[in-house]
Amino acid sequence: MTKPRILLFDSGMGGLTVANAVAKQLPDAHLVYSADNAGFPYGAWKEEALRLRIVKVLGALIARVKPDVVVIACNTASTIAMAALRDAYQVPFVGTVPAIKPAAAQTKSGIIGVLATPGTVNREYTHSLIHTYAFHCKVFLHGAPRLAEIAEQKLRGHAVDMAELKDEVAPVFRKRDGGRTDVVVLGCTHYPLLTDEINEVAPWPVIYIDPSPAIARRVADVAEETVLKGQNHDVPAHGTVILTSARAGGSETLTAYGTMGFPRHEVLEIGV
Ligand code: DGL
User: Fold this and answer.
1) Residue-number span of the structural domain to which 114 is assigned
2) Ligand 1 neighbourhood includes 17 CB (under 6 angstroms)
3) What's the total number of domains in the chain?
4) Does the annotation mark 74 as catalytic?
5) Distance (Å, rounded) from C-alpha 272 to C-alpha 269?
6) Are 100 and 71 in contact (CB under 8 A)?
7) For the chain, which terminal residue's Cβ has fewer other Cβ atoms within 10 angstroms, N or C?
């Protein structure tokens, strides 16, 4: 039976949370992960420059992997580049955007926190999700400057600085008119890597929304609707991570990818 070849893309290790969910949903799929570690972190980039970069990087990755489906496992990239990617390339794309709709369905207090990168928080796309799905809620959006980096350091085996983590997440825990935040959207794919620690520093318990299982179900549906390209021995093997810079690919990083299901690696220098 032909297996779908799925290319997952993020700025760094965050998309591994999505890769993990896709591996559970489609255990036979051929998975190749890619991290634009030369551009990490995406959160602080200017919109237009980042959009151009993402389109160029994906062009090189699609040529190398020849995927059946591409998963943009990054909210920062999905909220600005999805339309440009669909215009530029024929392959089906699945993206991830902050899970505001499910949060609005689950909140009882009507007070929702959204943790995301500074870029995602500023995007028009994110604001229009709130206007459409959570217009009846109070939404506290916070662009956390360091959370993605803290998550990467954790995966590399470093201790998490809990005081710093507490400061990064505190702005979404709010009280208003006798109620308080009861749902927090993890609006960056890196953040589910830190759910236990965030829970520990949170001032009270809340529901955390990690969209990766829903994304994985969507990937399975799209793979089923797609005519698969079939085997190709010139493409990276299942379990390969492609990095855009060898510089940040030290042994701790490669070990982290290995433990998350991607023990092989390649470097694709893109020159953007
Ligand atoms: N994992 C990414 C996201 O979902 C971006 C992290 C970053 O590069 O700042 O938004």
Assistant:
1) 100-210
2) no
3) 2
4) yes
5) 9
6) no
7) N
Ligand 1 pocket, 11 CB below 6 A? yes
Task: Tell me the pLDDT tens digit for each residue of 148-182.
Answer: 999 999 999 999 999 999 999 999 999 999 999 99
The verdict on residue 272 lying in a domain is: no
Instruction: State which of 187, 210, 233 marks the end of a domain.
Output: 210
Which pLDDT score, from 0 to 100, does residue 248 have? 60
249, pLDDT greater than 90: no
Is 192 near ligand 1, meaning CB less than 6 Å away? no
Structure tokens at 85: 């990617």
Q: Is 137 a catalytic residue?
A: no
Taking the centre of ligand 1 as the mean of its atom positions, its distance from the CA of residue 43, in whole angstroms, is 6
End-to-end Cα distance, the chain: 38
**Residue of 8, 74, 77, 219 with catalytic role:** 74
- Global pTM value: 0.96
For residue 4, what is the DSSP state?
P
Has residue 117 been placed in a domain?
yes
Indicate whether residue 120 lines ligand 1 (CB < 6 A).
Answer: yes
Give the residue from 90, 76, 203 showing the smallest Cα distance to 143: 76
Question: Which member of 188, 198, 215, 260 is catalytic?
Answer: 188
Tokens read off for 235: 């493409």
Decide: helix, strand or coil at residue 61.
helix
My answer on whether 88 and 217 are in the same domain is yes
* CATH code, 206: 3.40.50.1860
- Please indicate, yes or no, whether residues 108 and 92 belong to a single structural domain of this protein: no
Cα 91 to ligand 1 centre (Å)? 22
Residue 269: pLDDT band with limits 50, 70, 90: confident
Claim to verify: residue 82 and residue 114 sit in the same structural domain:
no
Residues 59-112 pLDDT 10s? 999 999 999 999 999 999 999 999 999 999 999 999 999 999 999 999 999 999
